[in-house]
Amino acid sequence: MEEEAAEKLRRYLEKGEADGLGGRVGELTKGLPDRFFESFVLQGLRLRLLEPGRVVCSLKVPPRLLNAGNSLHGGATATLVDVVGSAVFYSFGALASGVSVEINVSYFDAPSLDEEIEIEAKALHVGQSIGVISVELRKKNGKIIAQGRHTKYLAVPIPSKI
């Protein structure tokens, strides 16, 4: 029985069987541009507010980012924490957003297809070599979807600080 379970797991992980595409993921993704992942998640993201130390964006949840339960996939949520959080460093005039040291996400709710969400990222600490960002995803009614915290090594110093 263990061998059967191991083989099923292998098929799930190595061939993308859970996607409903019969393991054709490799075939379907051939020819996609390098660094496609961020664009795939961020397409449709709108910048709503930019000020030093704070970035607010919105996104209407598209079908491509849904999980099997028809709500925003946790991986897409984590990517939004990563990328929108990293954008805060650019709000200070940085030329680069640094390198991730630690990222965590706590999930509280999940938006559905076509639901408008808000992503707000704020600088908690920007030092000479380390920056810490807090990111919150909310539904239109203010209900928290997820909260994240992202720590980055700032290889290039930020010109101005909080």
UniProtKB/TrEMBL annotation:
PANTHER family on file: F19P19.27 PROTEIN, THIOESTERASE SUPERFAMILY MEMBER-RELATED
Thioesterase domain sequence ranges: 70-144
Keywords: Acetylation, Cytoplasm, Cytoskeleton, Hydrolase, Lipid metabolism, Mitochondrion, Nucleus
Gene Ontology molecular function: any one: fatty acyl-CoA hydrolase activity
Any one biological process term the GO annotation gives: lipid metabolic process
Similarity-based family: Belongs to the thioesterase PaaI family.
Top-level taxon in the UniProt lineage: Eukaryota
KW Mitochondrion (keyword) present: yes
Main location: cytoplasm
CC per GO annotation: cytosol; mitochondrion; nucleus; spindle
Annotated source species: Punica granatum
Subcellular localization(s) per the UniProt record: Cytoplasm, Cytoskeleton, Spindle; Cytoplasm, Cytosol; Mitochondrion; Nucleus
Catalytic reaction list: a fatty acyl-CoA + H2O = a fatty acid + CoA + H(+)
Keyword Lipid metabolism on entry: yes
Stated name of the protein: Acyl-coenzyme A thioesterase 13
Pfam families in the record: 4HBT (PF03061)
Matches recorded under InterPro entries: ACOT13, HotDog_dom_sf, PAAI_dom, Thioestr_dom
Quaternary structure and partners: Homotetramer. Interacts with PCTP.
Summary of the function given for this chain in its UniProt record: Catalyzes the hydrolysis of acyl-CoAs into free fatty acids and coenzyme A (CoASH), regulating their respective intracellular levels. Has acyl-CoA thioesterase activity towards medium (C12) and long-chain (C18) fatty acyl-CoA substrates. Can also hydrolyze 3-hydroxyphenylacetyl-CoA and 3,4-dihydroxyphenylacetyl-CoA (in vitro). May play a role in controlling adaptive thermogenesis.
NCBIfam families (UniProt xref): unchar_dom_1
Entry-linked SUPFAM superfamilies: Thioesterase/thiol ester dehydrase-isomerase
